[in-house]
Amino acid sequence: MKLKASTLLACLPLLAAMPAAAGEIAFEGNSKPACEITPAKSTGLNKIYVLYDTQGVGMSYKPAREGNTVVWTKWTAGAAYGQELPQVKVLQDGTSYLAQVEPNCGYTLQEGDSYTYVWVMNYADYRLRLEGIAPDGEGDCSTATLKVEGSGPEMTYYTITGVRKSLDRDMKLSYSTLVCNSDTTAYESRDTTETEENFKSTLVVPAPLCNTTFTLTGDRFLDYWGESQSVTSDLYTTQAIACTTRARQEARNNDNERTSDTEGVLGGSAPATITFSAIVTDAVNFKEWQEATDADFNNIILQLSDLETTQTFTEAGTYYWRFTCSNGNGTCDATSSTYTVNIGESELLVPNFFSPGSTEGVNDVWKVSYKSIVKFHCWIFNSWGTQVCELKDPGQGWDGKYKGKLVDPGVYYYVIQAEGSDGHKYKKSGDINILRYKKNNGTGTGTTTGE
User: Is the CB of residue 288 less than 8 Å from the CB of residue 321?
Assistant: First the structure.
């Protein structure tokens, strides 16, 4: 079965518009109005008329110009094989009239050099009858199969060149499924409508992600005449599942931390805290986050039966994460894409001078430059051995103050003990030179001198 997206189609008009017929066509004696359709230009037809029942229905044509003679021909497999209709009567006003229209055939109406081509169809010969609809078995992970009881012959017609075509019944199959809402990060129920072009005793549709009933209605011709039919199935129990996952890394806005330059890459400088979360559909019974040392997940080192988990990566290396789930009987499963976490080797660089109290925001805070430092302790002393600052986070810095006041310029000393994500231990010590800059009086460019 070929499905297409649901659209609202009216009988007037259906397809691309064509130039209006030269004269006026009308039907008399019909119990319900004719459904007028404008077919594709490639058919050569100006109109297709679907009549509720052609029994006792007459067809008339009023020429565009009074006094014009109209020649009627009837055909089935192409206008070139048309046969003239001698039984056509001409009324006083010039309207030509066929007392009993012949169904399921084409008509050519020749008015001088103007030709009008139409096809007249008797819906009674193709009437849709819907008697029932039911799921055929439990379905599978991707499709649901439905059995339809009833009938609805193909509504065939021919183009003016004799090409066989069929009218679209536009039958509607409605059911519910689940759709992921990216704003609320949850699956929500949504009504879905598929359009079936013609009656089929077997329908195959994408498997719904929740338990639902199926309702088949139609067709568009019965809709037009107010006699639409509808059948609804018993409750369908879905086996299909789906999952949606994401990974969010906690941001650190430390200007002295060397992180990954690649947007969207997880990891970078340790410690890296990442939250892995998943949402699943109704039929999911088993769920698991997995961590592996290889991209093929041959060596899984961690399994967590949670929808969300937060992990802090403190060791250098590459880690692979994915989410997997399945339904209750294990017949359907789903696996997310793989999240790769790269934790780089550690680095620790120590500056040896800065200038607090000079130009704000320009080298006025002493900070180390680092990457993947998971343990850090720093002490700073003056030349008399007095501790003037202590830092316990590599993202912290010294603003050159002691007890709320800027210290004097000169030489200070630091001692650092740290450890990287790769296990490397750092023991560093050295001097820090505090410079104080002075600007010359007057205008012009200021010169700087170190005190």
Answer: no
What are the per-10-residue average pLDDT scores of the chain (451 residues)? Answer: 35 35 85 95 96 96 86 93 90 88 95 93 97 87 95 96 96 97 87 95 95 97 97 95 95 82 77 95 96 96 96 94 95 95 93 88 91 95 96 95 94 96 94 76 35 33
Q: What is the pTM of this model?
A: 0.75
Q: Cβ of 442: how many Cβ atoms within 10 Å?
A: 6
d(CA 74, CA 77) in angstroms, rounded, equals 10
Cβ atoms of 119 and 50 within 8 Å: the answer is no
Query: How many Å apart are CA 139 and CA 309, to the nearest integer?
Result: 33
- Tell me which of 1.10.3470, 2.30.30, 2.20.28, 2.60.40 is the CATH number of domain 244-343: 2.60.40
Q: What's the burial of 200, exposed, middle or buried (CB within 10 Å: 0-12/13-18/19+)?
A: middle
Per CATH, the number for 348-434 is 2.60.40.1220
Helix, strand, or coil (residue 223): helix
Respond yes or no on whether the N-terminal peptide bond of residue 219 is cis (omega within 30° of 0): yes
Q: Assess if CATH 2.60.40 describes domain 3-125.
A: yes
User: Which residue ranges make up each domain of the chain?
Assistant: 3-125, 129-232, 244-343, 348-434
